[in-house]
Amino acid sequence: MNELFARLSAAVIEGSKDRCEELTRQLLAEGAGAKEVLDRGLVPGMDVVGVRFRDNIIFVPEVLISARAMKASLAILEPILAAANVKETGVVVIGTVKGDIHDIGKNIVSMMLRGAGFKVVDLGVDVRVEKFIDVIRREGAHILGMSALLTTTMGYMRTVIDRLKEEGIAARTMVGGAPVSAAFATAVGADAYAKNASEAVEKAKALLGIRATERS
Could you tell me the domains of the chain? Predict the structure, then answer.
């Protein structure tokens, strides 16, 4: 089965939508769990894509092709993950910040959070602070997750966090994305930083005081 996971990662990197669907279904048929397919197949593949994009080895068109392939697998996995967790753990509002239209990592995080039992309200990309605040209030969100892929947009996270404090909104904040680091998260006043989707789930649970062993 290890070879199948490696082939799925390769299919994501190559941007082969058909192969991603085929290998995802094959892994599930052979007994792999949906989360295992995500963690051992899709996420490692997208990690490689992210590094190559960061290092200017590939560019936006190639990233989008890989994203399309990955989303084909996500469409198969998401209902399985969601069905495995009926009770909602908490409410998370998530979005890519103003000026940034990248959503690959955010989409994976959203799906992982849903699979862990969270209600996720995904606001998409290029989200302004006013939109974040409106939806957090409307949904009674416990956590706000923000993503950025560009160094020119990551600073907007501080704008959002500062406004939340000014408005007296108690939602905890979690940030992530290729240029974001733990040190940056601390500097802008975020409550948590996650380097990948799996870590985002654990950090979200920790922010709400949920032990990692719960809901497993």
Answer: 2-83 (1.10.1240.10), 91-207 (3.40.50.280)
